[in-house]
């Protein structure tokens, strides 16, 4: 009875407002009843697995052969900042509200997140008919000395299979001067093998990375570095049959055609860091627009820049990104 009631209360857990006022601090239209979520987790933790079993599934690709995925796996790496706000993603109720709003927009295919967020979205009934990607390695915490020894502390392949999710995602950062990169390379290859054995797609997000004089890890977005990262990622594992790439747009967007020629694997673009102004947001859209025309690029996986846009209008940001496809 409790499970059935919880399912019926999905819409009540997502309380929608009517305001359409757009300001820099605009609150999204969706409110989440955190007290009810906590009650369900406390009194009936099995509701999460039962909601996963009940979830309506769909093919990875729709009729247009494109993917629009909203990403929210940043908090599990301790990466909570957006623009100049260091803890913008720290309020879980607000983040869930923004995610539910984004997932409700036409043309949004699904979400990429860690177990805690996906569990909440399952209880909220927000994942029916959506593509669900489980985030697999989150051990390389932002700013940590072990950031490049990126252990698989998130979803395992068996978890993704058990929960009926549609794919997995992993991050592969390679620093030629850091031995921790070798551990991550090997773990990534075995994760690709385990996903392929289950016929589950895995999205690999590769970078060539370096530490600056301040010790901070930075990703190299030059054409040469992105080309090299794609070549390395494409060759991992015993088969590439179920491997997708998740790639950034290069510093010079005009280089993308040559860069993407490095592999025949299907790819999606990642949103990456976007500045805090509307002009920065518009510039990101233009970079994505050009790269989306390339033959191997099949869609977008974008997180903070859509969930926390410069003008605060989540729906408009998501709709603009969908329009690029």
Description:
- With 325 residues, this protein is an alpha/beta fold.
- 38% of the residues lie in helices and 18% in strands.
- It contains 13 helices and 11 strands.
- The strands form 2 sheets. An 8-stranded parallel barrel has the order 3-4-5-6-7-9-10-11, surrounded by 4 helices.
- The relative contact order is 0.13.
- The N terminus is likely disordered.
Structure class: alpha/beta
The helix content is 25-40%
Main sheet summary: 8 strands, parallel, barrel
Radius of gyration: 19 Å
Mean pLDDT across the residues is 89
Q: Total number of β-strand segments?
A: 11
Distance between the termini: 42 Å
Helix and strand string, N-terminal first?
HHEEHHEHEHEHEHEEHEHEHEHH
Strand order of the main beta sheet, please?
3-4-5-6-7-9-10-11
Outline the secondary-structure elements.
Blueprint: H1 2-8, H2 10-13, E1 14-16, E2 30-32, H3 34-43, H4 46-54, E3 67-72, H5 92-104, E4 110-113, H6 115-123, E5 131-135, H7 157-162, E6 167-174, H8 180-197, E7 202-211, E8 217-219, H9 223-234, E9 243-247, H10 256-260, E10 267-270, H11 278-291, E11 297-302, H12 304-307, H13 314-324
Parallel strand pairs: 3-4, 3-11, 4-5, 5-6, 6-7, 7-9, 9-10, 10-11
Antiparallel strand pairs: 1-2, 7-8
Helix pairs in contact: 4-6
State the main characteristics:
single chain; 325 residues; alpha/beta; 8-stranded parallel beta barrel; two-stranded antiparallel ribbon; 13 helices; 38% helix; 18% strand; globular; disordered N terminus
